[in-house]
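BUG: 3D viewer hangs when loading the predicted structure for this chain

Environment: internal workstation, default settings.
Expected: structure renders.
Actual: progress bar stalls at 90%.

Input used:
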Amino acid sequence: MSQHPVTVIQRGGGDLGSGVAHRLHRCGMRVLILEVEQPLVVRRTVSFAQAVIEGSCELEGVGAVRIDTIDAAREVWAKGQVPVLVDPEMNSLAKIKPDALVDATLAKRDTGIRVGMVPITIALGPGFEAGIHADIVIETNRGHNLGRLIFEGCAEPDTGTPAPVKGHGNERVLRAPCSGTVTHVHDIGDDVTTGDVICRVNGKNVKAPFNGVIRGLIMEGRSVSEGLKIGDVDPRPVHAHCYTISDKARALGGSVVEAILYLQNRQKAKREIYND
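Structure tokens produced before the viewer hung:
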């Protein structure tokens, strides 16, 4: 293992990616999150990507700060925080020279990463093939294989259907009824009952499909397209779930740590054999 802290560049600071970054940071790794200029974050209260909009944010005791230059990353690391840089093209790779690159965008498509770009490449979810796009692909579909490290082939195809919670599946997701600007009536953490207006898009109401708590809701004032996911209602009346890392995000974070350590140990073993 290298003498300096492991440096990881991670694409994507949504709720799942933030769970991954949080665990990497807690394990002593230096994480730089790359984001787009206008991240469409639904679970804003648990997403480091929100630092792009607000300048800074905090998730379970770990702070994230938006930076505008690559050099500023080291200053943020020195303060024990996670830097977030707008760099969708990954131009920072050449300057930072990370030990690992993690694609946690959950884009479900080829995002341009390839094996060999950096010493270790890891990708989460479908759209990537182990051995081509990444050294290891990690399964993101809920079930028996969640978090499994895949060394050959791909993750399970996207089902397009969220896992049922207390009997509620697709209806948990709020989607824009039309294209337009989002206006809030309620916000994350609010209790709602069936039929309550949660927000409006271009004046059209988006209503609660059942009794529950708003777990995710896209920022007010954002322009969205028809059909885009803009919110998430949880039938479980547990408000802490709105502000803490989910079980799925924690599982994926542990898997990414495992993948990095596994690949580092394998590379070390190969070097020792070569040197002998």
